[in-house]
Amino acid sequence: MTEQAQIVSKVLVLDSDADCFDRIKAFCDTNGLIGLKVQPDNVMAVLRSNLDLGAILLSEKYADNAQGGTGLARKIHAVRPELPIFLRREMADSLDDIVQRDRLLFSAAYTIDTISKLQTSIEEFIFSRSYPNALVRGITEIAIPALESQFKAMKVEVEAPYLVRDRLIFGEIFTLIPLESSWCRGYMMLQTEEDALMHLVKAGRTFVDSKDAYDFRNLNGLLGEITNLIWGAIKNRYLSSVREDVYLSQVPIIINNLHRYISFGSDNPQLCFKYTISDANDASFRSLVIQQKFVFNLSWSPEDFSENVVSVDELVSSGELEFF
Amino acid sequence: MAQILVVDDSSTVRNEVGDFLQKNGLTVALAVDGRDGLVKLKADPGIKLIVCDVNMPNMDGLTMAEKVRSELNNSTVSIVMLTTENSPVMKERGKAAGIKGWIVKPFKGDAVLPSFKKLVGV
Asked: Quick count: other Cβ atoms within 10 Å of Cβ A106?
């Protein structure tokens, strides 16, 4: 048995009823959800930004929309079809009276008095996978020192891990590297903003010469090396070799640059970690955000998860020379 | 003439390791992968130590180490791997290729400088 890690997910709450909003917030608090409220005029702009959402809780009477929640749901579905929409209804927690075409927009319906029933849908559509606690904890234990080793005089902080269903790419530079093991197969991504990374290079906070900051290939290389450091340590600690006689399936990875969107061919949420790299002594110094995302789209058997055993003979600290 | 050849496809690592070694009085040549490393080694008989990554395009570091011994017939240059890899299988392959040692990244210059100096004979 593997212990499930405490992972959260952000949901957009589109509900104008103040009384209901408080009860929805209480539901979110007890179900690992972070409810985000947004002004009605800003909904579509927010959906196009990088909020890392897991779902949308929409009221059928949101903002007194003439078309009801269904009209807004159509617009949301057009730009973010991967996000499940849970519809709060006034009378009955059912979608039966909604025309078939519109019914498909929603993953579930609830009333404020039956909101607890939504828990099943939340587990189905957002928390559909459990992640071994040791893995989730270990990822940050590996990533933080790796980041610290590449940024001089900077501190690294990480938010609680979270799940997202939108597949938006954060920033302009991202790396993608396969994770192959007997218990999982998928990818790790690192995503960041070029301008913020360039700022750190120009300020001499990296091992890239500051005069080379304007060549984007050096910025790519820096994120590439960080990826390599983290990937190598994850591989050494958690990934066991895949049997050579096993057929290894693959699916196309689709990237739409216009929409900053990447699909791995599966509906599974991505496991995300957000690292902020900032100057420990100067709050005005521009910080850098790196998002680390995991998608285990090809194989996932957490019940077989285990840490690789290291013998005492192999206990040489990283960075030290082990003589043969 | 260089004393140490740093072979890594990452320009960040080449800068980091190369700059550190030069600041500490060692002369350094750089190569971007195993194939480039073999060319640079062949061209510079002064190289005493190769610090080499494992995972690189075109030619990986372990293959390069094997070719240094077999194709270049160079049995004197010391080879140290600097890599994120830590698998016993890979280390065994490295040992068989006659590499001298293994460093798991990230690079910590102060921890390895005395050994590097010893390997190049200063």
From this structure: 22
- Enter the ipTM: 0.83
Q: Which residue of B has its CA nearest to A323?
A: B101
Contact B12 A233 (CB under 8 A): no
Positive or negative, the CA dihedral B88, B90, B92, B94 is negative
pLDDT tens-digit readout, B93-122: 999 999 999 999 999 999 999 999 999 998
Give whole-number Cα distances, A84 to A8, A39, A48, A143, in Å.
16, 20, 16, 30
- The pLDDT value recorded for residue B105 is 93
Which residues in B lie closer than 8 A to residue A208 (C-beta atoms)?
11-12, 15
CA distance A165 to A80: 9
**Is there a domain that residue A319 lies in?**
no
Domains in chain B, start-ordered, CATH in brackets?
4-120 (3.40.50.2300)
Smallest Cα distance from A322 to chain B, Å: 5
Query: How far off is chain A from B97, nearest CA to CA, in Å?
Result: 11
Domain count, chain A: 2
pTM of the predicted model, to two decimals?
0.85
Asked whether residue A191 falls in the same domain as residue A48, the answer is: no
Give the gap in angstroms from C-alpha A321 to the nearest C-alpha of chain B.
5
How far does chain B reach from its first CA to its final CA, in angstroms? 15
CB contact under 8 A, B12 and A225: yes
